[in-house]
Structures are given as structure tokens and as C-alpha cells.
Amino acid sequence: AHQSVEGQAMELGWVRDNICDLSIEDYLRMTLKKTCWYTCIHPCRIGALIGTRGDINLERFNRFGYYMGAAFQIQDDILNLVGDPKKYGKEIGGDIWEGKRTMILIHVINSCTENEKERMRLFLSTPRKQRLHKDVTWVYQLISKYDSIEFSRNCARQLADGALQEFFVAYGGLPESDDKLFIENIVLYMIEREI
């Protein structure tokens, strides 16, 4: 829980302080803390503890859970912008309205011209209730201009590939079973969720 709270605090701090000079590595560090620990790493470790009655090295699940959780979070960020509202279940574009520093937005900011960066800083410093639809549309246009969704989708795929490789490290010694296949298939689901 500590890791998740720390990651959430990082993300909220970036929005509160209007931090715009972030790298993809910053985003992945935040995601490791905010999402990966509670979504993937801890559940894998808990399952391993129960399944082996405590007779296992839990560190072997960390990389698998990190890659899988990061791929999941990036895909969730993509769905937030282009998903089907009926399937996604949340506000489409909400991350832009909230000014969340997703991988997509960080990629856009790092790709922008100086004039675009200045306008983006101004947009992100404006409270959500005062943001205008035309400005959100402009951010979507930048996302398209700089192929930021495709960039993020490629990162998610690479992370999912890494998760599959780490799956065989973490679970390789176990006999084949429906449960093992289920966990392997979760990785593919993480990035192939319907948009």
C-alpha cells in the first residue's frame, strides 16, 4: 500500500505543481509505484505464497508484475482518450481535462515546439472547471500530430513482450495448468482490451 500511495502522491503532485518537464522514465517510475505494485506484483506474490505455502522466492515476480502493470496502465491511458464510453466506463478524455501526466501527454509535451509547450503549460495550469472544450480539442490535435497514442501503444506492446518473457522466468518451473495459462493470457488481455 505504501508504494501505491507514494505513486499516487507523485502523480497528484505533478498536476498540483504543474510539472511539465517529465520524462518517460519519470512516468514509468510513478506507474511502478502507483499501479504495478497493487495491480500485479502483490497479487502475483500473494498467489505464489498461497500456492507454495511460503516456499518460494517472491522477488522473481517483481519484473513480471512491473512489465505487466505498466502495460496495463499505458493501455488504460490510451482507452481514456479513444475508448468506447460504453465499454470503458469512465469519462473519455478525462485525463486531459484533469491534466494527468500520462505517457501520452508527456510524449506530446516533449515533442512540442516551444510555442506549443508554453500554451500547454498555460492549459495545464488552468483549473479543470475553467478549461475550455476548444483547448482540450487542441491537445487532442497535438496528440495526433505527434503520434503520441501510437508511441504509447508501442511502449505498452514492448512492456507486454517483456512481461511474457518474465512470465517464463517467474512461472517456468511450474507444471502446465489452466491456472498458469490464465495468468499468461492476462498479459495479452492487458494490451488488447477493446477500445
UniProtKB/TrEMBL annotation:
<dbReference type="InterPro" id="IPR000092">
    <property type="entry name" value="Polyprenyl_synt"/>
</dbReference>
<keyword id="KW-0808">Transferase</keyword>
<dbReference type="InterPro" id="IPR008949">
    <property type="entry name" value="Isoprenoid_synthase_dom_sf"/>
</dbReference>
<dbReference type="GO" id="GO:0046872">
    <property type="term" value="F:metal ion binding"/>
</dbReference>
<comment type="similarity">
    <text>Belongs to the FPP/GGPP synthase family.</text>
</comment>
<keyword id="KW-0460">Magnesium</keyword>
<dbReference type="Pfam" id="PF00348">
    <property type="entry name" value="polyprenyl_synt"/>
</dbReference>
<keyword id="KW-0479">Metal-binding</keyword>
<protein>
    <submittedName>
        <fullName>Polyprenyl synthetase</fullName>
    </submittedName>
</protein>
<dbReference type="InterPro" id="IPR033749">
    <property type="entry name" value="Polyprenyl_synt_CS"/>
</dbReference>
<dbReference type="GO" id="GO:0004659">
    <property type="term" value="F:prenyltransferase activity"/>
</dbReference>
<dbReference type="GO" id="GO:0008299">
    <property type="term" value="P:isoprenoid biosynthetic process"/>
</dbReference>
